[in-house]
């Protein structure tokens, strides 16, 4: 049996997982270093990922904003371009109403009639002014200087002389055989005649624009029909040649189809020439630049029993 002195002098034993004290300290140090290194790596990786994601998000947001601003600027530029075209009075598509209005403002004959009417109005104003009294006024001045001999002293003296004059004259015819009255009546008649001539010229120009406008649309349709017929004739010629090779068609049939194709080619060329002349006539009536493009616009109804509407306000 152990005595109390033996129990008191007995050394304590270490029970840390069966390890020695030095091994326990190494384990603690390893754990602390592992935690520190893990935290450091975690923070570095987190910062790196955060920066990369932030830059990526900023880049995406920047590109999206750049695209939105580009689209916005494009829309604004388009609206400004349309506004400038509208301000110039040249719409992108020309209806019959636009063509008539443009012709009434720029046609040479209409401008000549307008200038003639303005001259008649000036003559009418002068005829009215002939009834008023005429007034004339003038002012004159004269200055002389030099030397003269004094008869009393027989010596030379300097002489300076200044003269001025004022003149005011008025006249009013009392009776001239009603010539001024007749001139006024004639001036009024010429003004009325100028108005009627301008109105008649505008009507003629508007009617001519309508005819030229319809001619352009008609020949455009004729060119389309002739082109379609030419395409069908070419397909028919290919079919006839194939059938001639297999023996179901003769050479006469092929020649007849070729003649029809040549006639269709001539018809397309003829209709295109007529369309070109119609365009030139329309632009000449409108006094529109020949080299500029002009695209006509019209409203075609879908149902066959409804006619095309033409709106013209002169």
Quick summary of this structure?
This protein is mainly alpha-helical and 314 residues long. The protein contains six helices and two strands; from the N terminus they run H-H-H-H-E-E-H-H. The longest helix is centred in the last third of the chain and has 68 residues, at 179-246.
Distance between the termini: 139 Å
How many beta-strand segments?
2
Provide the helix percentage. Answer: 55-70%
- Global structural class: mainly alpha
Unreliable spans:
11-22, 300-314
**Which outline best applies?**
flat
What is the third-level CATH name, the topology of the domain at 98-286? Outer membrane efflux proteins (OEP)
Radius of gyration: 53 Å
Question: Can you summarize the main beta sheet?
Answer: 2 strands, antiparallel
């Amino acid at each position: 049996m152990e005595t109390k002195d033996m129990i008191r002098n007995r050394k304590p034993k270490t029970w840390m997982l069966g390890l020695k004290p030095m091994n326990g300290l190494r384990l603690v140090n390893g754990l602390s270093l592992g935690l520190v290194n893990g935290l450091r790596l975690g923070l570095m990786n987190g910062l790196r990922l955060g920066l990369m994601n932030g830059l990526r998000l900023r880049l995406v947001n920047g590109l999206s904003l750049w695209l939105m601003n580009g689209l916005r600027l494009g829309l604004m530029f388009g609206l400004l371009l349309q506004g400038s075209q509208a301000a110039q009075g040249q719409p992108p598509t020309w209806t019959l109403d636009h063509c008539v209005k443009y012709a009434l403002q720029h046609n040479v004959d209409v401008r000549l009639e307008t200038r003639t009417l303005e001259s008649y109005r000036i003559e009418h104003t002068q005829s009215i002014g002939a009834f008023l009294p005429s007034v004339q006024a003038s002012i004159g001045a004269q200055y002389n200087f030099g030397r003269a001999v004094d008869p009393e002293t027989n010596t030379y003296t300097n002489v300076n002389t200044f003269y001025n004059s004022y003149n005011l004259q008025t006249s009013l015819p009392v009776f001239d055989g009603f010539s001024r009255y007749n001139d006024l009546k004639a001036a009024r008649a010429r003004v009325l005649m100028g108005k009627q001539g301008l109105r008649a010229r505008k009507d003629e120009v508007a009617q001519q624009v309508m005819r030229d406008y319809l001619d352009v649309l008609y020949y455009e349709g004729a060119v389309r029909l002739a082109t379609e017929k030419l395409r069908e004739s070419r397909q028919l010629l290919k079919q006839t040649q194939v059938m001639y090779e297999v023996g179901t068609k003769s050479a006469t049939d092929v020649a007849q189809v070729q003649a029809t194709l040549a006639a269709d080619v001539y018809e397309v060329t003829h209709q295109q020439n007529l369309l070109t002349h119609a365009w030139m006539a329309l632009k000449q009536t409108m006094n529109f630049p020949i080299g500029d493009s002009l695209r006509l616009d019209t409203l075609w109804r879908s149902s066959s029993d409804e006619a095309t509407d033409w709106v013209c306000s002169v």
